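tokens incoming
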């Protein structure tokens, strides 16, 4: 079984039963994040990444474009990277990583490191904050 498939199973196991999770298997529109999770009525767009070499997140151009479009539509996307030494994960803001890739800048630091469940909870709180800022500015 692939490491990304195992990672998905760990993410799914860390969620409350009331949460909705959908793994995206899209052969026709590449670039869309691997998962949509709805917790507390908010959509979380999450790209799963297995351990990487050189401490650099690699995204396809279509993935970069999608993370930027999600951000421009007042939503939040994330990249969840499995820690190769533990069962923990690193959480990155999808827009910040994609923006750095476009500009050729150094990739930003992770926004959270902890258990997969803690990372998902952190995604939810970041998404809630973004949604309240977006509704306030309307």
């Amino acid at each position: 079984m692939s490491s990304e498939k195992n990672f998905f199973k760990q993410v799914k196991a860390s969620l409350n039963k009331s949460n909705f999770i959908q793994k995206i298997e899209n052969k026709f529109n590449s670039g869309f994040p691997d998962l949509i999770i709805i917790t507390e009525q908010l959509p979380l767009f999450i790209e799963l990444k297995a351990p990487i070499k050189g401490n650099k997140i690699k995204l396809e151009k279509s993935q970069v474009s999608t993370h930027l479009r999600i951000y421009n539509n007042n939503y939040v996307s994330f990249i969840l990277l499995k820690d190769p030494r533990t069962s923990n994960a690193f959480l990155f803001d999808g827009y910040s990583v994609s923006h750095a890739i476009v500009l050729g800048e150094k990739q930003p630091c992770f926004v959270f490191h902890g258990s997969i469940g803690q990372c998902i909870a952190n995604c939810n709180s970041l998404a809630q904050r973004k949604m309240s800022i977006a509704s306030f500015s309307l």
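note: The radius of gyration is 14 Å.
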